[in-house]
Every structure is written in C-alpha cells, then in structure tokens.
Predict the structure.
Amino acid sequence: MIHKKETFEYIVHDSIESVSEEHKELIAKAVENREQAYAPYSGFYVGSSVLLANGEIVTGSNQENAAYPSGLCAERVALFSAGATYPNEIIKALVVTCRNTKKLTDQPFSSCGACRQVMLEYELKQDEDIIVYYLGEQGPIIQVNAVKDLMPLHFPPDAL
Ligand code: THU
C-alpha cells in the first residue's frame, strides 16, 4: 500500500498592484463583464475573461435559466466561446470574479468541479499551463499557475 499526497502552491495578491501588468486589463474585463450576468435566481454574479496567445480577450458571465441545470457558469461560457471562436489559439490566462447581490464578497472563491474539469481539458489539449485568477468584489486576488493544481485525480480525456 502506498500513501500519496498532493500539494500545490498559489499566490495571494493583497491588491491588483502586485498582479503582472499584462493581466491587469484581463482582470478589469472580467469585473466589467460580471455585470452582464443573467442571474435572477441566485443573485450571484460571475464574470470571466480569457486571454489568448494572439492577444484577444474573450469574456463570459453566468447565464441562468428557470429550468435550473440548463444554466451555465461564467468560466465555461467564456472558455466555450473562446474554444468556438479561436479553436487553435493557446489560452494563457483565465480570470473569474464574483459579486453576491445578497452580501459583500470580500474573498475570492474557486470554480465548481464541472468548470475545473473543462478548464483542465483545455490545458491538457494545448499542453501549456493556464494561469487562473480568482477575486471577489473586493479583497485579495488568488493566482494559481496551472489548472492541474486545482484538479488532482481528474477524469482523464484519454480514458475515452
Ligand atoms: N457559478 C459560476 O458562474 N461559476 C462557478 O464556478 C460557480 C458558480 C454560477 C452558477 C450560478 O449561476 C451561480 O453562480 C450560483 O451557483
């Protein structure tokens, strides 16, 4: 029997000041896009932005539906849009930010499992790490340097 342990490191930025210059605009776009969310049921507004190697920024926000599971998270809206529009472009970085209309969000949150699986598959497909940032309405910003860190023991696409 072998006991295995997985750990990962991530960066906590006290403010946007210490974030790399090239990603500041990307974060601003996600924050801007958060307000485009269609979230009448949860009141939880999520914005996302994806930076591609060609310099394009693709954005998304969560889109809910009265038949609840039919909605989609912001990061999947952004990633699927990027994948559909620029299928061969490397994804360099992804930002996810939330605002809860019911209480102040002053801490970052992390993506749901389904979104992590989707993020991971794009990372595996391009064989290049994707930097991920999480932030709330205010407060610290978390930077994770690879999706695989967020998704140990993932479902491997090559199993199919
Ligand atoms: N949501 C996201 O957009 N991203 C996540 O990673 C977690 C949850 C959305 C889905 C739903 O519209 C609302 O937040 C509440 O779950």
Summary: The helical segments are 21-34, 74-85, 113-126, 147-150.
